[in-house]
Amino acid sequence: MSDRKTSSAASVHFIPGRVDGQRIGSRILEEQIQQAVARGHRNLQIEAYGQHGIGGRLWRASSEEVFIQITGHAGQRVGSMGFPNTMIEILGPTSDDVGWLNAGARITVLGNAGNGAANAMAQGKIYVAGSIGARGMTMTKHNPRFDPPELWVLGSAGDYFGEFMAGGTAVICGHEAQNPDNILGYRPFVGMVGGRVFFRGPHQGYSQFDARLVPIDNEQWDWLCGQLEVFLDQIGRGELLATLSQRQQWQLLVARSPHEKIARPTIAMDAFYRQAWEKELGAGGLIGDLTTLDRSPVAVIATGELRRFVPVWENRKYAAPCEATCPTGIPVQERWRLVREGRIDEAVDLALAYTPFPATVCGYLCPNLCMQACTRQSGAMAPVDISRLGRASITAQLPELPPEGDRKIAVIGAGPAGLSVAWQLRLKGHQVTIYERTKTLGGKITAMVPENRLPQEVVAEELARLKAVLPHVHLQQPLQSEDIEQLTRDFDFVVLATGAQKPRTLPVPGSERAVSALDFLKAAKQGRAKPGRQVVIIGAGNVGCDVAAEAHRLGAQVITLLDVQQPASFGKERQAAEAAGATFRWPVLTRKITARGVTLTSGEQIAADTVVISIGDVPDLDFLPDSVAVENGFIKVNDLFQTTDPKIFAIGDAVKPGLLTDAIGAGRVAAETICDLLQGVTPQTRLREMIPRQRVTLEYFDPRITEFSDLDQCGSQCSSCGTCRDCGICEQICPQHAISRKQLKDNAYEYVVDENLCIGCGFCAGACPCGVWDLVENSPME
Amino acid sequence: MQPEGSITPSTLSVKDLLWQISWNKDKCSLCGKCTAVCPVNAIELGVFRKRIVQPPADLLKPPPAVYKTYYGIRQKTDPAYNCVGCAMCNLVCPNDAIMPCRSDEADKQRFQIDRGGQPRRRGGRRNAPGSILDRMKFIRISMLTDPALDAGRHEFELRTLLGRVLPPEENLEFLKTNGWIPPVREIYPLIIGGMSFGALSPTMWEGLQMGVAYLNEVIGMPVRISTGEGGCPPRLLRSRFLKYVILQIASGYFGWDEIIHALPEMKEDPCAIEIKYGQGAKPGDGGLLMWYKVNRLIASIRGVPAGVSLPSPPTHQTKYSIEEAVAKMTQSMYMAWGFRVPVYPKISGTSTALAVLNNLTRNPYAAGLAIDGEDGGTGAAYNVSMNHMGHPIATNIRDCYLNLVKLGMQNQLPLFAGGGVGKSGNLAANAAALIMLGASGVQTGKYIMQAAAGCLGSESDRCNICNIGRCPKGITSQDPRLYRRLNVEDVAQRVVDVFLSFDTELKKIVAPLGRSTSLPIGMSDALGIDDYNAARRLSIKYVV
User: Nearest-CA distance from B121 to chain A in Å?
Assistant: First the structure.
């Protein structure tokens, strides 16, 4: 009331809002007020008739206080843009937006205020003796240069109170509230970012996202009490001070700081899972009844059973390509391993377990299919040279022979196949008796292979070794079918290794004038053959090439090989024939053989002193008992070389024409089968699958090596396909240190994986030079 | 990359591949994580030779030349192991040493991925970036013309109706003569489209369901989710959460015996029944859940033995016409829940959509029509079906809506649009565009997979291996080793995040139109596009 006393003491300048019964416009009234202030009036009384914006912008009074009392009906925006020197008193209710953009004026409303009270107010105070409408105290500011604005309401706030409130203090006393149940109105404080609100009385919620309740501390309470007294005095309701000064009735609400804003009043998802989801559905949630599988989260890189892939050490699971392609089945890579380990003698000796002719065949006569298949070839590198090891095998030491047992096997034919099967069976301790038609052991090797193809002492040495092992040999024993039948009764098994003795002839006139390759080569070896100057050989295979080379040795000068198709000859034989100056002609067909030579179907004459027919040989099977079936001129056998007679086996050229190594390999398979049968075991093929070459890593080897200087170098350059080299690379490359080498008994070892460390990256498989490691899918989890 | 030796027509170099692994030798620590994580075994440890020749400066001696080997990451070029660009290698690499890069030209592998005569199949999407929906603008911004609303301040209740809304007088007549009126649901306008239990992993499926339950029960948004065709876990059928679920029936009829058995024990009716006749991503192509995805769990939910492939034919085997389909299936589905549950068909986008719609308008049982456009996603389909079959959703939905307008039934038969909603990340804008074109709501699947579970697919043929069960994020795999990478609660939380942010964005779009409680369905005067032909075709404004 003190202000009012002051104002009444000064002279009052009255401005009516209606002149001559006519309401004056808001613009005119504003002009009159501004002029009055400019003229020095500091105490104005306005009789308002709804004019807008009364009492704002009174800066012309400079720092002097201006008092404005409004009677009648104040319009909208009383005191808008009010200055700090302005004191406005409305003697009744007021319309909307009182104190809009107030920059310091004190506005007292002795009644209710409409909507938008204090909207965007930045400084100053608004005292309302009643309640206010919607959107009060919205968009208020607090400029740090000035005191914060204040809005005091004796009653209640309307809806959407304090929206986007950014500063200042609002006090809602809740006395004689328009809505006693909700003194803050509907949905207050949405978007509130600053300021505080004291309130007294019930409310029905506010924006929790933006505002929060805080306890009133003593300093705040003291402030509130002090200012409350001022407010009540200002609106003439000092008697309410005691009623309103009860601390427990008041609450204080402040804006949340940006860090305190919460997205929404919610519960955490894990709490929802427990409290709502599992409670309704049961333990384990949606499918807890259908599976017991753990569904808890796992790491992307997992170990143990959670690995998608697991490494496996597949040592010796696969055969190296050399071993897999060797018809004899010699584990070539194993011999190089022994060489690497410095066990050269063992590497040499090992061959004798597979063949009685390691030097003769591997060292000289074999086209070495193992080298053709060598994985190094797939990297355009020279294959490891096995012939060196083969030639060294001449000194191979026999293992100690087991004593001869009482199981007896008869072998018919002492060629490579027969000797192979006999050799194998003897090494296994069985009694073997050999029946050979001719005077010598060795079959083709001794009878037909030209002497220049290998040193004769090599053959002699290996035959001597054979004779020492196989004492029961009967030479010059041609057998008839009755003899074979008798043998099946006297022996546990009979193996037919009689070879292909009958030269195939050509059904053309004069073929009787020609000599067979077999006969020619035998005669040549015995020094009986006299081929003359011109020789025509019909059939340009490897045997034909041998004939050409021998004919050249015996003086022939013009040598022609004929064939109906591109000649199948290859390797050393072909080279020897070409070195002899032989001419290869194909495709040509022979019409007849005359005393002068060969006449082709084209009519061409090729002169010849000797015509040799070399179109293959077929077995002479007159001696076969009826129980042994024949197919296409050869003895019919299965994969294990069993004939249709369960006691009789057949191997070598009698079964199918092939290389020496084919015959030797057949002997070994037959021997293994016989051993199985003698032991009552179901026989089976023992061939391991060949390793996929891409598993082998050749990058460790120097591609510049095209020739090998010695056995050691051969050994070091062998990638040991499928068999662990024990190089330790896997141990080192494993990023998890999951791989370790485990020493076993008898010098054996293995590499093992600690599944609790392994992540299944497959580095071991990628790095392994030998292709021993593989990465396989882990077993499914269900 | 190929060793010496022969080549075949399918022999490819890294340059020929769509995704090429860029590997940095200096950064690589050889930790093995990339090869361990690669879903398709496209990379492996390689051993490399390095020849170093170092001539001395004065050339007085011959230069020493040494061969060394080093280890690194090698990309396989066999089409069977082609990199799919998922970049999981990059995700796990501690040194950022590896990353797949997309070829700068058309790849050659596409010509080799039909070996064995089997054309490419994959999951994912159409691999066609861009969308007409993305180009639409909302051009009606009310400021002083209408009471503009404030998306942040005003209260919104964005809801749509699923069900046949008959005019009041017809409703009364209907009730009088039939004692029944069609059921209508008030739901949120963004529906999670059908993705089956089986196509999705258990963790993903449960995460979606729980997220939806949370949205309903904690946030108060009536979000609904379609089961897709793979049945529904028995517990869900018997829970109150069934209310939030749209049960889908499709041509494979998987799991429906379990649903029928659960009928007597249901606490709540499902939201609706969706009869799937087609899928936008692969119209005319059926579904096939490969045997290796059909483990014991999937089998038990679908009511089949484990370890067998499960075909869903492209068509319902005994339905030969719209009339028959509607008569048989819609009515039977209504009967199952005592005519309390709305039943609507879902078709793939097609030039024949109007024929379907017209039939539905004459059938008061039809609760709506869902149309799935060509940009939808799928777990498995033929590449050709995905890339070249289908109909864009925009014109389909627009034509259908305008047809309803012609019939005066635009407020009676709600249309739901799907297929590529949010394909470029603009979920709310696409949804709002479709709503203004005439959809009552939209269905989305792919966006949810990407946003809620981190699906790596893109429109650039990235990943796309949903069909082989090796989803690196565990979204579409039935292998616990993979799906346990996904946490149910995390997925649920992301679903909630997606809907809340969608809600805000949708408000930002509709508030300036002055809409807060009714969706601007068909409010096409608010739509503009900078393509004259498109504007004309869609009857919206052409703006430049």
Answer: 22
Distance CA A98, CA A31 (A): 20
Q: Any CB–CB contact under 8 A between B37 and chain A?
A: yes
CA distance A610 to A366: 29
d(CA A370, CA A329): 10
Alpha-helical regions (H) of B222-368: 234-237, 256-262, 296-302, 322-325, 331-336, 353-361
Q: B47, B53, B76: which to substitute to probe chain A, counting the most A Cβ within 10 Å?
A: B47
Kindly report the number of other CB atoms within 10 A of residue B170's CB atom. Answer: 13
3.20.20.70, 3.40.50.300, 3.90.180.10, 3.40.50.2000: CATH of B132-159+188-542: 3.20.20.70
Question: How far apart are the CA of B296 and the nearest CA of chain A, in angstroms?
Answer: 7
Measured between beta carbons, which residues in chain B are less than 8 angstroms from residue A762? 32, 35-36, 44-45
- Whether A59 and chain B come into contact, CB under 8 Å, resolves to no
**Residue B536: CB atoms within 10 Å:** 11
Contact A308 B500 (CB under 8 A): no
Q: What is the pLDDT of residue A263?
A: 60
Taking alpha carbons only, the member of A302, A272, A301, A268 closest to residue A285 is A272
Residue B128 and residue B498 in contact, taking contact as beta carbons nearer than 8 Å: no
Architecture of the A504-615 domain: 3-Layer(bba) Sandwich (3.50)
Locate the DSSP E strands across B295-424.
310-312, 343-348, 369-372, 378-382, 415-418
Q: Given CB atoms, is B11 within the 8 Å cutoff of chain A?
A: no
* pLDDT (average), residues B158-174: 91
List C-alpha distances in Å: B28 to A307, A309, B75, B493. 22, 22, 15, 35
Residues B195-213 have pLDDT tens digits of 999 899 999 999 999 999 9
The pLDDT value given to residue B4: 57
A307 neighbourhood in chain B, CB within 8 Å? 36, 481
A295, A704, A781 member nearest B203 (Cβ): A295
CB of A310 within 8 Å of a chain B CB? The answer is no
B215 to chain A: closest CA residue: A266
Locus of tokens 């018997």: B238
**Cβ contact (<8 Å) for B92 and A300?**
yes
**Which residues in chain A show pLDDT less than 70?**
1-10, 262-265
**CB proximity under 8 Å: A 252-271 to B:** 263-264, 266-267, 269-270
On chain B, the residues whose CB falls within 8 A of the CB of A379 are 3-4
Distances (CA, A) of B248 to A114, B70, B244, B334: 55, 56, 13, 13
Alpha-carbon gap, residue B290 to B307, rounded angstroms: 8
**Which residues of A are less than 8 Å from B210 in CB distance?**
269, 272-273, 277, 285-286
Q: Give the integer Cα–Cα distance in Å for A160 and B345.
A: 44
CA distances, A12 to each of A40, A64, B179, B304 (Å): 11, 15, 79, 97
User: Is the domain covering B14-118 a CATH 3.30.70.20 domain?
Assistant: yes
Q: How far is B156 from B500, CA to CA, in rounded Å?
A: 13
Q: Which stretch of A460-464, B35-39, B170-174 has the lowest confidence by average pLDDT?
A: B170-174
The partner residues of B100 in beta bridges, in order of sequence, read B21
Distance CA A61, CA A606 (A): 142
Give chain B's largest Cα–Cα span.
113
Round to whole Å and give the CA distance between B466 and B282.
14
Domain with CATH 2.160.20.60 in chain A: 2-255
- Does CATH place domain A2-255 in 2.160.20.60? yes
Given CB atoms, is A50 within the 8 Å cutoff of chain B? no
Residue B367 reports pLDDT greater than 90: yes
